[in-house]
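Q: Protein A?
A:
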Amino acid sequence: MTQPQPLLRTLLLIDTERYSDRDDVQQGYLRRMLFGIVDRVLLSAGADQSLRRREDRGDAVMELIDPAVPLTDLLRALLNDVPAELRAVNRLAASSAQIRLRAVLATGFVHIDEFDGWVGTDLNNACRLLDGDPLRDALRERPDDYALCISESVHAGIVAHDHLGIPKEQFNPITVPTKNGPMDAWLYGPVPASLPAPRKAPASRPSTPAPPGLDFRGTNHGLVANHVQGDITFGGQGGLR
């Protein structure tokens, strides 16, 4: 049997808060709202049905999105379109049918096996971010209906570069406890008060001074044809040239 090959995909996971607290009729309504919101948001980002694959998890959906869909477009849609969709849906819904969402955007490799199952460490890690306390607490403490977390790979590849419409200063570092150890990620918006102080970026390493009595000075333009171009002075004044 041929082993399934890993596919590089964008991973989008979206979960409904307090789904199991609702009765069967309300759960059916929430599922329709969830699917409609996700479909419209992904279509606005250029991810039509031919460019994505969905796993239905009842109260949640997982989407494998072709890397041909730009991550910048997906992230802008998650930042702008999802909140707008939620406002439009919830303003017409009864209090018992309000929908609130947690979302994770990540990237990684996923195997799709002969049973149409999805397998991959990157996918497992995205699920841990979705189910982790930091994202749950963030949604619980916010007056709006949405909380978004992104993986380190999405932050390093996209957010850190300050693309148009993706405000990097509004993403805050968090650490998510998991059974396999802590995971670093980034939360859009304020960090929950229940979390410890955010981790700090590593300090830059101080430069190492030259050993005593050895001073490198002069102008060195590098080696050309095995000859040093420019002067290098070893030692203080009067040293060797």
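Q: Protein B?
A:
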Amino acid sequence: MMLGIAGNQSRGSWLFSGVNSICISIKYGMANIKYLLIACCIIASIVGIFAQSPKYVERLQSIVNTTSDRSNLGRLYVLNSSLNMIEDYPVTGVGYGLWQTYYKQEYQLSIEIQDLGHSHNNLVQVTAESGLLGLIGFLYFNICVLAKSIKSYMKRNNPYDLCIVLGWISYIFLFGSIDYTWGNSLGIKIFLIIMAIMVTLKQMELGDKKKKIT
């Protein structure tokens, strides 16, 4: 995750990969102080690299800039337009994949000059395209996945369910609050493959434990 943070300029990736790194490091650091010290050294190195690069410093500072940063302002503009769209089509939405069509025809603000292709928010995008019915289905699916993994983690305390929970919350809900990750074709495929790997590793570990017991 640290290499990923250093290797790209996605502010959402920096923020939520950092959150995951801290959560996972705390868990394993409580059991092994050496792990925690190594993690702190890596974090300090990454921070040092960022601090020495004006490009990265400027990029970090832009996260909280809502007055002149075009990327942030564009997200606020499409959010406002999307809420108007939801208000006009509350139950079933404008139709899957039709957000951009309705946006350009009726809802794009004159001050939004980036011509953005989506609302940059999973919940808002799903509601705009599929209405409240689609939002209920979306939340039901994702909450069920989280609930199952949380229950399994509390029962067996395995790292794979922990990774699923942190990864799912970060990509779908946290990162998904500033970008439309659910509609990122390549991104969601990679995400689901990683989640499937975690499930497979968990099943393999459970199988090994059963063999040892027998």
